[in-house]
């Protein structure tokens, strides 16, 4: 069963991303290489380091009353699982 929870700030988002990386058995360096990023960028994101994008994102979420929810698949989840599109199945 996946973990699902509210993401109220950049720090929480960073912790969730770190848990997802660890669940996949990847180091920061390996994830960075897979994504074409630097290890430092991955580290800063996981630490919840403030940046223009995250500050603006969470300010906009607050201002609009929108909640960001993250879902972390368990380590043995099927890697081919595609997330459902928002609104799919809502009839």
UniProtKB/TrEMBL annotation:
Compositional bias per record (Acidic residues), positions renumbered to this chain: 76-91
Region Disordered: start-end pairs: 72-91
Domain HTH cro/C1-type as annotated: residue spans: 17-72
SMART domains listed in its UniProt record: HTH_XRE (SM00530)
Gene3D superfamilies: lambda repressor-like DNA-binding domains
CDD domains (UniProt xref): HTH_XRE (cd00093)
Transmembrane residue ranges: none
Protein's recorded name: HTH cro/C1-type domain-containing protein
Organism of provenance: Agromyces neolithicus
Highest classification ranks of the organism: Bacteria, Bacillati, Actinomycetota, Actinomycetes, Micrococcales
